[in-house]
Amino acid sequence: MHRVNVDELFAGKQSKYALVVGVSKRARQLTQTFEEEGTIVEEKPVLLAIEEIRNHQINLVEPEDDEI
């Protein structure tokens, strides 16, 4: 089982909600891509999405304070 340090992942982010939504959206994108390509992966899409965010391969866009 993989353990994710949420504090490390949350560093520099303002909203935990934005982090959760970003991870889930990216995981859905990965799942759809894998299904379309017929790719079989051992890692779960959520873990792959978390790794991409941790490694700054994708960036999350967070709402401004007045948009919340």
Describe the structure in your own words.
This protein is an all-alpha fold and 68 residues long. Helices cover 54% and strands 0% of the residues. It has three helices and no strands. Helix 2 packs across helix 3. The radius of gyration is 13 Å and the shape is globular. 9% of the residues are buried. The model has no long low-confidence stretch (mean pLDDT 81).
Give structural attributes.
68 residues; mainly alpha; globular
How much strand?
Answer: under 5%
Round the Cα radius of gyration to an integer and report it.
Answer: 13 Å
Number of strands: 0
Element-level helix/strand string = HHH
Poorly predicted segments? none
Main sheet? Answer: none
- Helical residue percent? 40-55%
Report how far apart the termini are.
34 Å
Structural class by sheet pairing and helices = mainly alpha
Number of helices: 3
On the 0 to 100 scale, the average pLDDT is: 81
- Gross morphology is globular
Please give a quick description of this structure.
This protein is mainly alpha-helical. Helix content is 54%, strand content 0%.
Please describe the topology of this protein.
Elements: H1 6-10, H2 16-37, H3 45-54
Helix pairs in contact: 2-3
